[in-house]
Amino acid sequence: MVLKIEAKWEIPYVHSAGEHATRFFEALKEKRILGVRCPRCGRVLVPPRAFCERCYVDTDEWVEVKDEGVIETLTINYARFTGLPEPPYAVGIVKLDGADTGMLAYLGGVDLSDWKKAHERLKIGTRVRAVWKDEPEGRITDILYFKPVEE
């Protein structure tokens, strides 16, 4: 038999975001979303990456995209998971206007307690707009969620 010792560790650390992520997060402080264009295939990648994963070439042309787009896929979660928001909550991939890739984000602005009604408002193809923190800090959580655009 092996003795098991339970303990809680707190290990502070600093993570280097890299040049592309740094520029992306700095733009979020200004409520702007940046991507990069691949010089070979022309795709605009959001969030930005140092290289195009299809062409394997460096990316260095910066492009500002809109904070509106469409839901490409989503899920509404009604189960509780440690470290995540209290259910119900929705997450999805949002493809922003001007981008060729989607970004993972929370979806909101809709009553999620009735899943049938929620799915009428949040579905693939729904146009959404970012809801920003009042005072952005340069983190992905500066975008609180994307909500449906009212026509």
Automatic annotation (TrEMBL):
<dbReference type="Pfam" id="PF12172">
    <property type="entry name" value="zf-ChsH2"/>
</dbReference>
<dbReference type="InterPro" id="IPR052513">
    <property type="entry name" value="Thioester_dehydratase-like"/>
</dbReference>
<feature type="domain" description="ChsH2 C-terminal OB-fold">
    <location>
        <begin position="62"/>
        <end position="133"/>
    </location>
</feature>
<dbReference type="InterPro" id="IPR022002">
    <property type="entry name" value="ChsH2_Znr"/>
</dbReference>
<feature type="domain" description="ChsH2 rubredoxin-like zinc ribbon">
    <location>
        <begin position="25"/>
        <end position="59"/>
    </location>
</feature>
<dbReference type="Pfam" id="PF01796">
    <property type="entry name" value="OB_ChsH2_C"/>
</dbReference>
<dbReference type="InterPro" id="IPR002878">
    <property type="entry name" value="ChsH2_C"/>
</dbReference>
<protein>
    <submittedName>
        <fullName>Putative nucleic-acid-binding protein containing a Zn-ribbon</fullName>
    </submittedName>
</protein>
<dbReference type="InterPro" id="IPR012340">
    <property type="entry name" value="NA-bd_OB-fold"/>
</dbReference>
